[in-house]
Records
---
Amino acid sequence: MNEQEKKRLEMLEASEKKLKDRYKYQNEYIKNNYDKIVLTLPKGFKKEVENIAKNKGFKNITEYVKELLKNEINAAGGESVAPAGITEDKKPGFFETATNPQQDHTQI
């Protein structure tokens, strides 16, 4: 292996490490800041929900389900809140900004 090939290999390894570090950070951030809900549905149901979501103008099923849940919480008299410090432009568009930063947000 010549010097040029060694440099290319080193650059490739450094690039791969940066990418792995980025994914690790993103996954850690998501783990610490979001809850995850997994649904198991009958075969074909996902496609139906996806079509409904698209027809209603949502970019994906997740955004559609978030909106349905938000509306359900609000209709039940609950209040959708985000953890303190999260604003509309920094979150995926589901929860409203918390009005009281000292408020307990574990209810959702």
---
Amino acid sequence: MAKAHRKCNEYRVLEVTFTRRNIPYKTDMDNMISSACRGWINHPYRQTPNYLPLISPMSTPVIQQLSPLTIQKIAAGEVIERPANVVKELVENALDAGATKISVTLEDGGKELIRVADNGSGMTREDLARCWLPHTTSKIRAVEDLEMVSSFGFRGEALASMASVSEFTVETRHWEEEIGSRLRVVESHQEELVDFARSQGTTITIRNLFRNNPVRRKFLASGKSEGTRISSMLTRLSLAHPGVSFRLHEGSRELLHLPEGTLRRRAGDVLGVHLLEDLVEVDWEGGGIHIQGYISEPQRFSGRPNQQHFFVNRRHVQGGMLLRAVAQAYEVWPPGRHPVAALFISISPAEVDVNVHPTKREVRFLNEARVFWSLSQALRGALRSNIAAPELHLDAPPAASISGNSMEATGFSFTPQTELVSPSPLDSTPVVEKTSLLFPTDSRPMAAPQVLETTGALCLQIHDSFILMAVRSGYLLVNQQAAHERILYEKAMDDLRAGTGGGRFSAQQLLFPELVELSPSEARLVEERLNELRALGFDLEPFGSTAFQLRGLPGEVAPEKARDILQSLIARLLDPERGEGKDGNELFSRVARAYARAAAIPLGQPLDSTRMAAIIDGLFATQNPYVTPSGAPVLIRYSLDELKRRFGIKAEEET
């Protein structure tokens, strides 16, 4: 509701209250208020001597107590953001009940149906009748219990929140009872509570999530994206419970099966079997803290930045301080690569506060410095026992020099070119100069774009990262990674449009197909994006539930780097914080950006003259050679006049 006050005749105030739902624009709102004011001014009762305004601006209290249903819906918005939160809460309840088998079934990524079944201890009829009421829980009894929370759930908010925004059904049987019970609640109204024959355990079904909250439902992603979030969340939870079997179905199709087993096997199932042999076991104890788990050796870092999983008393938590401890333990962290870790910290519940976040994603330690030191020491000890120290060669490098057009390499390093860049096709290649439009140096009106021509005289690589190229009006400094990223992006967009539209893609075929093993969430993503990946040139064929045969590559990808580039591409696409494109072109752009970023030549890689010339040619053949797909600058131009000014050369001295 919106309230508007407008002064009418004789400065009397009329309060007009109306609903904005069908009034999208402020102009329409003002017109409605003006019409109401005119109607009230001309009303016959308005002319009576004893006239008083029927509605006073101060007659309605400003502060009001919300209804219980409104309070529940607000709480539901904090606890349940999307289907993945529902599944997380229900699976954690099953784990608290001692379940060893948990099955999750979805329809449309959980938007239409979520069903979680377990073989836990179950509930009695009396407990079932109370379980969906706000702030009812079996985990704590008094405020003092919050200091020693060892269960996953304890607030008594989750089931009440679900019952307020869905059709909520519970079927359960306690292990001590012979007959079970069934409860049905629709939007916080109990519809049914009857006896029900079933086996021990609990099955909770959520239908039409956010059925009475269309705004929240509208902001959910597609069914595939929501299903991917649930799959990722379930695999994370399963890491801390290797003795529990997890299954995930979308309708009748099984998306995930994690059988019970050892922690090492579960780590391989979740992190990837291809990493299993390179995981270093961690087992450290001291000062009341026990740290277990696995971390990867430095040479097997992943391109995915979200492959570090931390658990505190088996509760999955966000990294923060724990991630900084991992970084300190490794000391050297290659750019663009990230360690793989599954680490479990056991500590007294009295030393941890888990009641600091609505969804319990974060925890607070009583002695954070001690936990940081313990984790860093545990990881350093594990890495030291498995990784030999590298040999250091401290011989001074020879001084670099170039004959002919030589210059002494002092202060910076570059790759000398024994052969000048060929004038063709660089020579006399017209390029529309837009650099000054992107990076204006003053506020004067900018002239029309000028034609820029390369001279073909000199092309050098500086610090193995930047290409220095002379042009007729000065010189250009080009970021080699950004330039290659722009080239690959535009080529990928062309390939995607042609490939998914029935065209053919060109890929270099591998003589011996390579087996690529992925985590369950990665495999699901590849299945969903198989057409786009094939259009880029990755010839992939399913090989089992979570593996693919790589039979062909894009022409720009070296075979020895194929696996790393493919996994990096998958990591960039497997980003739960990004929404899915609404149309094909937006999806193509996201795939193309991820591929270009993963496959581009990195900074620090030496290039010969032929490769540099190819990058420059390709860059200026693109539609926009001046920025990367994400908007970062690709090149910087320095004019000849600016150089002369810096060296103090005047016009008369040139002659």
---
Amino acid sequence: MTKRSIEGKGPAGSYDPVGSFFCAENVNHGERLVIFLEKRRELLRLPPGLLTHSRFNARKSRDPGDVEKLAERIKRIGYEETRAVWAVPAGDGYEVFAGGSRLEAAKRAGLHEIPVLVHYGYTDEEISFLADLDNENDEYHKPVPVTDVWAEYARLYEEEGWTQEKIAEVKSVSQKTVSLRLKLHRLPERVKDFIPQGLLTEAHLARIAEVYLEEYFTPWLTPDEAIVELAEKAVRDRKKNGEKSVRSLEADVAEWKAWIAVAKEIYKAGALSFFSPMFESGA
């Protein structure tokens, strides 16, 4: 059994992305062997063919137009050494966890080598934290779409087995935010598509997600369809009025909740009146 622990405290609460070493404990036959391994970074020049995208990069989608603009910039002035991509060793190559758009642009520009800052001895948690740090400080492309952030939280939760508490700690957000974003990631794709289109925001969808419609309640109106209908109304209102405030959306959500509450009572009453004769007859 092998356990790894990071020495020192960092920006995310317990991670030290710029520390000098980490401690690996190996317990074997009742004996504890503590090995101190160096945590270091090395700047190399590597061919793009050796580089692949890391699963810890939160950016799940890239605008081809943005990549093309960056490629044209590279052709004009060359690849700036200070914009090295960040990677970790992986098999015979390296996985880029920060700078994926720069990597794609370099490929498109036909470069044979690019600067790569290789990280040795870093944990998955630290790599996830550093990936966000680079995205926040990269002035050459758009911020990571919030829907990609939701997808990354879901991947960490479902595939990496991270708890909500761990995701919150690494991403420097509250557990409440993690819980909300996991919930928003499960919304219908038609609804989530309104985010990159600039028609709705995360705050809008947080309110819409409050509407809860039980599956058994109305077979002709599924929970997803209820969410879609409410979101589409918000988009229509925004196009008509030029905006759709979260406060006005809250009023729409309240109306839906009131309608659902009344309809549920009607449904239950109807179901009871349908089954009561059967119970009385002993059927």
---
Amino acid sequence: HTSTEELIQSFAETYDLVESSPRALVHSIVDLSGLSESLKPFDTIKAVRAAKSHERVGWNLAIMPTKSMPIELAIKMTSSIIKSRNRVFSTVDEARTFLQEMDPTVHWENMNYDVLAGK
């Protein structure tokens, strides 16, 4: 179970990663398959409002092999509040195909699949 503080910390780390990148847009693919429940809506809103939004954030793609309506609702809520582009996919391949269509400038040969696979 993720706490509000952990979510705030995750947003801060993401901001720092985007800030350190030389790319015009920075996309993320996040594996949420191990997440069993989302924060309460009030806690999600609190975390999102505490987060700094970066103008170079591109697509945020979530991998969820098993559908979870509460988690998907939290993602949609977050997207609405901070005006981010979020999508949920069942597999990494689906997310990759989508992102290749959305941003053909991504250098897939530089992607570290070990990180994505959680190795």
